[in-house]
Every structure is written in structure tokens, then in C-alpha cells.
Amino acid sequence: xxxxxxxxxxxxxGGAPGISAKYEAVIGLEVHAxxxxxxxxFCGCRADYAQMPPNTNVCPVCMGLPGAxxxxxxxxxxxxxxxxxxxNCTIPEESKFDRKxxxxxxxxxxxQISQYDMPLSLNGHLSxxxxxxxxxxxxxxxxxxxxxxxxxxxxxxxxxAASSAIDYNRCGVPLMEIVGEPDLRSAEEAxxxxxxxxxxxxxxxxxxxxxxxxxxxxxxxxxxxxxxxxQLGVKVEIKNMNSFRAVHRAIQYEIARQAGLLDMGEKxxxxxxxxxxxxxxxxxxxxxxxxxxxxxxxxPDLPPLQISRQLVxxxxxxxxxxxxxxxxxxxxxxxxxxxxxxxxxxxxxxxDTFEAVVAGGLPPQAASRWLLGDVAKLETEHRTRLAESxxxxxxxxxxxxxxxxxxxxxxxxxxxxxxxxxSGGDLDDLVQSRGLSMVSDAAELRxxxxxxxxxxPKSVADFQGGKxxxxxxxxxxxxxxxxxxxxxxxxxxxxxxxxxxx
Length: 502
Ligand code: ADP
Ligand code: MG
Ligand code: ZN
Known about the structure:
It is a single chain. This protein folds into 3 domains: 24-310, no CATH class; 321-433, no CATH class; 442-501, Orthogonal Bundle (Arc Repressor Mutant, subunit A), CATH 1.10.10.410. By secondary structure, it is an alpha+beta fold. 39% of the residues lie in helices and 19% in strands. The radius of gyration is 31 Å and the shape is elongated. Bound molecules: adenosine-5'-diphosphate (ADP), magnesium ion (MG) and zinc ion.
């Protein structure tokens, strides 16, 4: 037993720890994403409920009062189709909504309007690069449903609560569900899948990608099986992970827990478990329902949807350039490395900034260097994007170009960058009024070099006697005279010339 143990968290209930090479992990993610529409899915209430006092963003429809009738939000349907197309899904000609019946206090209607056997899309895939490999994960379907209300428990969420408060503001917010095939094989693959999926959703502008607030949520289904086995093992569904890190850790933990059970000859239960961040473990929440428990039936208050091919074409034509294509284009069009292109296209905003800086006239290599280096540092440190900073895109273009032309040196540019980023101001005025432009007048530089040579006979003798290092102190002397406003490489070159001519 001990020889199979490699690493991993301890298994609860006193079991043996460890992930064993005897098992292959199988993971499928179900991702819910609130759509960035103006109104809710079936009524006119606002979809951005976040700042509203509890239970103020409700109406008879989203509260499920008797006699209230739902009206479909067209934008939500279009956003779902757009997402499905970006994920290479097929859009059927017909679709419908169904009632998923269950009781829970956050669901005032007693059922959720969702989609069952005729979703808006089917059979797609998401593929991405991970550690030099291409991973291709199937997408079972992307469908549309409505969100529930939210519960606030006084006391522990996981144990018996003293009391709970209900807020219905979120009820009926358009919620897209992206069901992934069980094609992922490690916690790393699952995390990367989620990173890429979020990137696509935010590029499309259909979701804000916020795992922390829960406007994007991920459930991970995990099972183990002997490597090479084609049958799937019993799956456990994990909920409550609100960061990429939590998704990664929860899956790792769950793989180890199930391996421990199997090692002891036990079978994992098919159940739903919750990730408890503070305890770094999953705990059982409930045993799994089956579809039959929900008594799905077609929603009688909504007509079935006919999805014309013309609509699908229109939506296809509005498809923005997706992150992977954009990164590939930055490599071919501007000669960036794929690493640089990957980081620059991480968000649509950062990609747009890069393209704006290049369009403004800064050479692509310099634009990439600035944006990934000093600008990124300032953006993180001050939680401000370049576009909203005092410098702005245009300011960076001008500053970068002064360096490219050799009008100011790198040290000066860095200092100016930070100052302008934080306080704004006119770049040319600053350079002028502070006398920051480089001493590029050859005659002046030569006069300064001769002055330094004359004042340092010992260094000169040392250098001429073969001590290369002595040249550095002479270079330092000239840089000091120029107050740092010279190119050190040019000064070194000039000194060499002067000294060898002597
Ligand atoms: P349910 O009806 O319980 O929701 P589904 O078969 O519809 O189950 O699958 C839901 C999710 O679980 C999908 O993302 C799918 O990829 C994943 N899944 C299904 N079976 C397994 C399994 N044996 N191991 C891991 N993930 C699985
Ligand atoms: Mg499910
Ligand atoms: Zn409403």
C-alpha cells in the first residue's frame, strides 16, 4: 500500500492518504454564467441586481405569483447562441424550455425554467494548449435557464443555521449553462479549461467572468477508473469553488479522496460535495438527484423556439475575433513570441490596448515590452488600467517613441512613466522644463569625455595597462557630468576611441 502513495491531502474518516498511479481521473465541468443583458430572462426587472437592497428587484413574474406569464428575453437567446457558436456547437432549428421541478427556499415558483431535451445548442468543443500539448474537451451543450434567489444563513453555511434570510433579487436573471463532456484528465486541465472558457465569455461580452461574486460558477464532476478503462466510474459533483485556485485544489483533493477509498476496497458514493476553502477539503452535502426526480415537462407558458438559419448567420457575422485567433495573429502580424501574444491577449481589454498602442505608432516590439513590463507593474500596483491612467494610450506612444529615437534614456523614461501614469501632465513640457533630453550633441559629449580623462590619470593608466574595469569608472564619470542623460553604450564607445588614439 505505502509504495503506491505519492502525494496528496489526507483522506478524511481516517483513511489512507494518497493519489495512486492505479487510477485515471475523469473530470467534466458544468459552468453557469449570468448573461449581461439589461433585463431578466422572462420579465422586465433589471439583471444587474448586485447593488440593490434585498427584495427590491422583483415582480409577479420572477416571484412566480399565480397568473403571471413569462416573456422570453431575445438578447439572452442571442447571447447563448453566440457563445455556443464560439464553442463550435451545432444550433438546432428547434428548441424549447422545460420546467425543472424542485423545492428550495430560493426558488419561489417551485420550478426553474430551464432546457431539457431540446437545448439551444449541442455537440461543441473547446480546445487549448497546455504544457505543449493540445487538449480538446467536448462541449455537450450550451443551454439557457433562469437563476434562483440567494440565501443568507446566520451561522455556518454547512452546519445547522440558526436562521436564514432570502433575497429574491437574483431570481430570473438569465443563466447560461455550459455542460462539458467528461474529457478532462487532471486538475490542471480542468483549471485551464475554465480559464479559457472565461476568456471566451468575456471576449464575447456575454458574462463578466467573476468567479468570486458567482456571476460565473463552476461545478466539477470527478470520478476515477483504472487507466485505459472505457467505462466511467461513479462521479462526485463538487460545488462552492469561487476561484480558479479553489477549482484546482478541490479537484486534487477529490481525486486523492476517491483514490483512498478505492485503495481500501470501498466505492465513492454518487453525491454532491461542497468545497470548504477554510478547511481545504470537500464535505458531503447531499446524495445526487436523478433527472426523473425533477419531473421535467415542457414549459406551457412559452412557445417553442424556431431558430432560423438567418438568425444563426447574423449572429455568426457578429462574432468577434476570439482570444486564440487573436494571439496567433499577433505572432504572425507583429512577430511577437507566442508567450507575449498569450499574455497580451489574456483579456480583450489588454489586447485592445496593445493594438491601440501599435496603431498609435509605437513599434510592436516596444509596445509589447512596455505593456508587459513597466506598464503592467503600474497597472497592478495602482489598480488602474493604462487607458484610465494619467498617461493614457497616447502618452505611452509618445514616451515610448522618445526612447526609440534616443531622445531620452531608459531610466528617465521609467521615472516619467510612473509620474505621468499617476498624475498626468504634458510629456514634452516635462522633458523640456527639466532638461531631460539626452546629450546627443557629439561635440558636447566629447568635451565631457575629455574632461573626465584629464581628471582621472590613474584610471586612464590602469585601462591602458590592460585593466578593462577601469573604463567603467570613466564611463561613470561622463554619465555623472550628463546627469544620466547620455547613452552609456555610446559613452563607452567614445572613451575607447579617445583612449586608443592617445
Ligand atoms: P447529471 O445528470 O448528474 O447532471 P450528466 O451525465 O448530465 O449528469 O453530466 C453532468 C456533468 O458530469 C457533465 O459535465 C459530464 O461531463 C460530467 N460527468 C458525467 N459522468 C461523469 C463521470 N463518470 N466522471 C466525471 N464526470 C462525469
Ligand atoms: Mg448536473
Ligand atoms: Zn421580475
